[in-house]
Amino acid sequence: MKIFFFFIVVFLILSCGNETDKSYIIEKCVKPSDCNDNFECKFNDLQALDGECSKRIDCEYSYECDNNRTCQKDYDLNKNFCGNNKRFSVFTKSLNNAYLYKEYFQKIELSYPQGEYFFSIIKGELPKGINLSKNGVLSGLADDEIKEYSFTIEVLNAPENSNIFYNYKKLEKEFTIKLFDNDPCNYKCNEYQICNNDNQTCEETAIPSGLTRIYTENNDIYQGNLISVYDHSKWWWDSSDEFTYALFIEDGFQNTGDRSVMIISSYQINKIETSSNYLSIENYLNFLKTNNFLLKLPFNEEVFVIEGNEGYHKEESGYGDFAYDFVINDVNENNFQNDGLNNEDYYIYNKPVYLPIEATVFEIHDNHPDNVPGEYIDESEANMLGVKLNGNYYVYLLHLKENSIPMLENNNCERDINDVKCIKVGDVLEEGTYIGRVGNSGVSLLPHLHLTMFVYDINNIDNVRMWSIPSLFKNLEQNVNGELSYYDFYQPKTGDYLKNNEN
Fold first, then answer.
1. Which sequence spans correspond to the domains of the chain?
2. How do residues 304-317 score in pLDDT, each as one tens digit?
3. Under DSSP, is residue 289 helix (H, G, I), strand (E, B) or coil?
4. SS3 of 485, please?
5. CB 141 within 8 Å of CB 101
6. What is the pTM of this model?
7. Closest residue by Cα to residue 159 from 122, 134, 131, 133
8. 281/472 Cα distance (integer angstroms)
């Protein structure tokens, strides 16, 4: 039995060494623990031999192992290990250049890519925005100083924080990444300019059709639909040579911090550029539809637009440029009967008014007396209801009858019509809510309802005010000499006979 075991041992030793040179022996073992102190196999397991006993020699910086398992100089490598027939090294010799704000991607390749490897930076720095993944990929968007960045990468053939050191290998290699400015204009061009590579200057891009671009003295630039220009010289008080521009910016709308309409004084403007079709407000009108900023006529019967966006509304300091005044006419196109000296002579006086859009109550005035037709006191206040939509959009209805708005303060919530909702600031009211009756209060010569949509100029801290802007009505029936036309969306004009189309 002893003789039989002796022959087995001799046979296995010869089998382990007959494929290697005499200076080094690679033993094939089942697992690392089967190697003895002399790097020979311990024959405690005769199963399949898949391990490897290798005496490891650590070569110094820029040396590698030769065929005799000794270290020799090799300037292509940082560090290698003797004791394995396969070289373990970083195959990637250099890294690509990086450019500001452009995607960067570089994979660090190894010459012995078997198993799992962990990459890390142990010295130096990468450009900000570029990162090294654990599996050896450099990627990101560089945003840093224009210069050369040097750093050292460490590679371990074991997962991060692993306690496994079997056949352990570690490499270090130094790299550099040069970061360049991809824009010879040094990114000084604004969003409406392009960089001319030949002379390193910023050139203006073309303005899309229907848009206007405004440059201010503060170097701000706004581009959008020019929906109004308010001419201050037409005001009957405090007239000047100033113009105010209302510019709709399509992507500027938010429920808070709304900048969809910019109000800009001509005194602040350095330059204005327009396309060939600069008066187009198509984007603005689509915005009103998309956000359901659509008004319904505030009456249940046909009304006449006695004044639209012309005439005396242009004299109201920007508050009436897009206002509508509604009355009721008879078949002879008169808006009153008798001699018209009393408010009761006017067909629209005391008619119920309904909220044209769902909104939040913002402002209420209800205790101002009605004027005698043909007379008013300068700067007298009108009874009114102001409601807030989303963003900085508001709708106001003016010249209501004294004490007709259902308010607890006036103790009149139940005295006007049945099922009246009592209104207070902060209430959210549905479209069609009864809000009061037509009167003749404020700066008004005859009973009528004044309606306009405003935008709040919140950007002017010193002189915050509201500016009248175009509105859009929905589901209207227009009567022209007895012939009816129907509109899903319509902007009323002076001389229109209009009624809500309930069909």
1. 1-55, 98-180, 193-285, 292-500
2. 999 988 778 888 89
3. helix
4. strand
5. yes
6. 0.66
7. 134
8. 12
Q: With 50 as the cut, is the pLDDT of residue 53 above it?
A: no
Q: Encoding tokens for residue 398?
A: 């003016």
Alpha-carbon span 180 to 100, nearest angstrom: 6
Side chain identity at 184, as an amino acid letter?
A: P
**Count of C-beta atoms within a 10 Å radius of residue 104:** 21
Q: What gap in Å lies between CA 284 and CA 280, rounded to an integer?
A: 9
Token pair of 416 as six digits = 């006007």
Q: How far apart are CA 295 and CA 486, in angstroms?
A: 15
Q: Alpha-carbon distance 329 to 332, whole Å?
A: 7
Nearest to 208 by CA among 221, 225, 194: 225
Asked if the 292-500 domain carries CATH number 2.70.70.10, the reply is yes
pLDDT in tens, 101-131: 888 999 998 876 666 788 999 999 999 999 9
Nearest alpha carbon to residue 327 among 454, 468, 491, 495: 495
Q: Tokens 């929906």 — which residue?
A: 227
Contacts of 352 (CB under 8 A, 6+ apart): 299, 300, 417, 434, 436, 437
**What stretches of 217-258 adopt beta strand conformation (E)?**
221-231, 243-248
DSSP one-letter string for 40-83:
-B--S--S-----B---EE--TTEEE-TTS-EEE-TT-SB-EES
In whole angstroms, how far apart are CA 279 and each of 266, 287, 292, 453, 480?
18, 16, 23, 19, 28
Angle of CA points 23, 25, 29, to nearest 5°: 170
| Contact between 397 and 384 (Cβ < 8 Å) | yes
Which residue matches tokens 């309802």? 449
In the chain, the largest separation of any two C-alpha atoms, in whole Å, equals 143
Classified as helix, coil or strand, 27 is strand
- pLDDT for 341 equals 95
Nearest to 157 by CA among 172, 144, 167: 167
Phi and psi (nearest 5°) for 220? -85, 150
Instruction: Identify the architecture of domain 193-285 in CATH.
Output: Roll (2.30)
Mapping DSSP to helix (H, G, I), strand (E, B) and coil, where does residue 379 land?
Answer: coil
Tokens of 184: 């010879």
Token readout for 302 is 């046909």
Size (the chain), residues: 503
C-alpha to C-alpha distance for 404 and 437, rounded to whole angstroms: 6
CB 154 within 8 A of CB 123: no
> Which CA distances in Å does 99 have to 128, 188, 203?
12, 16, 22
For residue 10, give the H/E element and its range.
helix 2-17
Question: Which listed CATH number (3.40.190.10, 2.60.40.10, 2.60.120.970, 3.10.350.10) goes with 98-180?
Answer: 2.60.40.10
Q: Which residues contact 81 (CB under 8 A, 6 or more apart)?
A: 56, 57, 58, 59, 65, 88, 169
